[in-house]
Write a structure and sequence with these properties.
By secondary structure, the protein is an alpha+beta fold. Helix content is about 65%, strand content about 10%.
Length: about 300
Amino acid sequence: MKYLFLLLFFFVFQGKSFAQNKSLQFDEKEIPQLLLKAGTSEKLIFVDVTAVWCVPCKKLEITVFQDSLVATFFNKNFIIKKFDLDATRNDSVSNWIKNNTTGVPAFYFLDKEGNIILIDGGLKSNSEFIQMGQKALANKNLTSVLKQLDFKYPEMKNNKAFLENYMTLRKQAGKKNSDILNGYLSLIPKKDLLKDSVINIIIEYEDKIDGEGYKIITSYENTFYVKMHTKEPMMGYNMYVAALDIISSTASNALRIKDRGLLNKSLIENMRVLENKDKAKMQNEAMIKMFENSTKVN
């Protein structure tokens, strides 16, 4: 009877443990408190940025987040935070996430000091979600690595291989790359600027509306040339989407910092680049209205 009781206890306990790992276990605390927890646990913080109106977010919640393998891996390795994009928060890390998130679902991995070591997003499969987590764990020391590269940058800024790796790691940490990309492009012979490999780098790392890369991918002559000579069928479309993303993020930043000059620049570019001019006009009018409402004195 004693052994039967122990056996029953074992299965109940194991069943409870397994059930706990059937879905992601979210911590209700805010990010400042989670950073303290990360400091003692040595775990990374995984921030799932969502919104009540986000359909892909709901799909993730009822599929990937309920997978036992995904849940076991994430519950073991991360402190997990659900972050409502529309909620109001006051700490600097939360505000940075809110201001720099242009679409949901978005995923941020933070170290114990609040440094971002990986940004990702979008609808993913179970295996892709685990691979993302594994990449974050592999990047655990990204902050210290970047500090070393920051120190080396002045003497290595003419080394293309260094710059490519530097921009990759900076992007993973949520840092802007346009200024570094400008220097990288200055090392490329003019005749090679429209090669597929260079255009892909511009698409990956350009983030400013006045960056040299942006000018290259939005030039009518350049886009026509690429469409005629590219080996990648989607290259022209990818250039177009990348340009619109830069315009959109610039406009969002202008609204955030209440910079009318920057907003005007993004509106001009939106009208120039977006193929559907009626849609561009509607978007511009909406952005102007949002800006005016945000600057009204109560």
